[in-house]
Amino acid sequence: MNRSLMRRTLLGSAAMVALLGAAACGDGESTATTPQDSPGTSASASAASAQFNDADVMFAQMMIPHHEQAVEMAELAATRVKNPELKELAAGIKAAQAPEITTMTGWLTAWGKPTEVPGGHQEHGADVMPGMVSDKDMAALKAASGSEFDSMFARLMIAHHNGAIQMARTAQSDGSNQDVKKLAVTIEQTQDAEVQTLQKFLG
Hints:
Elements: H1 2-33, H2 39-47, H3 54-80, H4 84-111, H5 125-128, H6 135-143, H7 146-174, H8 178-198
Helix pairs in contact: 3-4, 3-7, 4-8, 6-7, 7-8
């Protein structure tokens, strides 16, 4: 009788241990899936340790002032452009490129690299940063208004975009950082589409 009671007691204890073990496993699976619900946390943490090369650094350092000039031109268009469609396009350029400046600045900071090209980007010339508007043309754009402004803005922005597209393609072929490559693809596709629209305002 004592043996039978002892056996039932042991079996009951084993069952309880099994149930507790299963519950523990369930808790572990729930915890493991938590990071997947917050991809932004892991993405920001991986940025600093992501692989990068000189082409990635150069792309960010050059594209930041390139974007800044496009934003400046778009801000001029907000008050000077005549065509409503062109005004909307200029607003879209600013909305897209301003956050990209912040993104690229963050990369350079995470990599421990200067956010500006040492010595200034002017020394690298149009071959390295193509499409940049000269001081003379920028002054002429600021002095223009109405239809004249629309035509000049479209012409200068097309050249500016084509320069950015060229830089983006170089980053895709020579860079190693996957985030840089993704942004380069986005820049190429977005600005190529905008060039097609801007063509309508020439003349």
